[in-house]
Backbone:
């Protein structure tokens, strides 16, 4: 009897040890991330809606609304279901150096817990950040750039919701900024250049 019990115990131990490190939870597979396409329609005039939806997984209606007249600054939020702002865009001709310095100090000199990427030089001075959040921040992915447009120092910031699994949030933010700068130049009749 002891031999039978010992044999069963040995079998259970072998079975359990053979399963270590393996998960029985099946992770959903994701399709390869597609490139960000620059195509109309645009949310808040600067971010391609189709690409935004693909990156964020947002479904349902979205409506972008600018706050007032855009003379030397602008703020636009794209609103979704439950009256939640799923996309935020700000731009200004004012205080660009100070705004960028404040963001660099906060993210590049910080604790290092959030992934940060500097923008490519052709987009000007700036960075992309994917903030770690436990759901308390609707738009934890943030990019900001300082560049010149028509000789004026201009900054744009974009913040978006969490991206779908399998996407590179920082890479997507950089591409959204590339499109936003180009669109800004078209709308304001200026040519974006690095600051």
Residues:
């Amino acid at each position: 009897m002891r031999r039978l019990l010992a044999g069963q115990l040995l079998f259970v131990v072998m079975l359990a040890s053979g399963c270590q490190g393996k998960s029985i939870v099946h992770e959903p597979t994701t399709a390869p991330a597609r490139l960000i396409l620059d195509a109309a329609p645009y949310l808040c005039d600067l971010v391609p809606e189709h690409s935004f939806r693909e990156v964020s997984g947002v479904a349902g209606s979205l409506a972008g609304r600018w706050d007032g007249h855009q003379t030397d600054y602008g703020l636009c939020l794209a609103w979704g279901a439950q009256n939640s702002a799923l996309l935020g865009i700000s731009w200004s001709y004012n205080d660009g150096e100070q705004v960028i310095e404040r963001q660099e100090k906060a993210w590049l000199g910080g604790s290092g817990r959030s992934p940060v990427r500097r923008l490519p030089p052709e987009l000007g001075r700036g960075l992309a950040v994917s903030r770690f959040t436990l759901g308390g921040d609707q738009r934890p992915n943030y990019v900001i750039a300082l560049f010149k447009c028509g000789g004026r120092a201009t900054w744009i910031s974009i913040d978006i919701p969490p991206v779908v699994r399998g996407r590179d949030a920082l890479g997507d933010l950089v591409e959204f900024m590339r499109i936003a700068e180009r669109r800004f130049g078209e709308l304001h009749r200026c040519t974006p250049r690095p600051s």
